[in-house]
UniProtKB/TrEMBL annotation:
GO BP, sorted A to Z: DNA-templated transcription elongation; DNA-templated transcription termination; regulation of DNA-templated transcription elongation; transcription antitermination
Cytoplasm in keyword set: no
Superkingdom of origin organism: Bacteria
Gene Ontology cellular component terms for the protein in this record: cytosol
Alphabetized InterPro entries for the sequence: KOW (IPR005824), NGN-like_dom (IPR006645), NGN_dom_sf (IPR036735), NusG-like (IPR043425), Transcrpt_antiterm_NusG (IPR001062), Translation_prot_SH3-like_sf (IPR008991)
Domain named NusG-like N-terminal: residues: 7-106
Keywords: Transcription, Transcription antitermination, Transcription regulation, Transcription termination
UniProt KW Transcription regulation keyword: yes
Function: Participates in transcription elongation, termination and antitermination.
Protein name: Transcription termination/antitermination protein NusG
Domain KOW positions: 117-144
Family the UniProt entry places it in: Belongs to the NusG family.
Length: 170
């Protein structure tokens, strides 16, 4: 994963359903740089809460190449890819700043890192556990990195302590 090589831009490719890993593997095998930002997501399944890695942008993957060399046709014909996102005849580059800022927020494997700094009053979404996908407000941050949040549950506010790694800013 590199930010930018001379003449190379980042593009957004639409994936076929459930083909993120297949497309990523096939693009890398062809020599393309790819970026597939992932996040942990907790969902109820069979009465239990299951945490799994999911694409941050379901259905899309970033691909870097030099458009003047015509490589985009190769991307369009890659197994797992539907097409490159375009406005007109040729694919449209994604602003480099957007991709580089996303990369800075992810680890080497593309996993979205927890926010660096939280402060009281921030709106956050819980990403794990029984309160996954609930929106809350940061109340206080304890020295042990425990974050106390206020959540609206059944018409009243409830105070809950969670780890900073279980929160994503909204």
């Amino acid at each position: 994963m590199t930010f930018h090589d001379r003449g190379t831009n980042w593009f957004l490719a639409q994936l076929k359903p459930n083909c993120a890993n297949i497309a990523d593997k096939n693009l890398k095998r062809q020599g393309f740089n790819t970026f597939l930002p992932m996040e942990e997501e907790t969902r109820p399944r069979n009465g239990k809460y299951v945490t799994a890695m999911r694409p941050l942008f379901p259905g899309y993957i970033f691909v870097a190449f030099d458009v003047t060399r015509g490589f985009w046709r190769t991307v369009n014909s890659t197994h797992g890819i539907t097409r490159l996102v375009s406005f007109g005849k040729e694919p449209t580059a994604v602003p480099l700043d957007l991709v580089s800022q996303l990369m800075l927020r992810c680890d080497a494997k593309g996993k979205l890192l927890p926010p660096k700094l939280l402060k009281p009053g921030d709106q956050v979404m819980l990403t794990k556990g029984p309160f996954a996908n609930f929106v809350a407000e940061v109340e206080t941050i304890a020295p042990d990195r425990r974050v106390w949040v206020l959540m609206e549950i059944m018409g009243g506010q409830t105070r809950v302590a969670v780890g900073a790694d279980q929160l994503r800013t909204v």
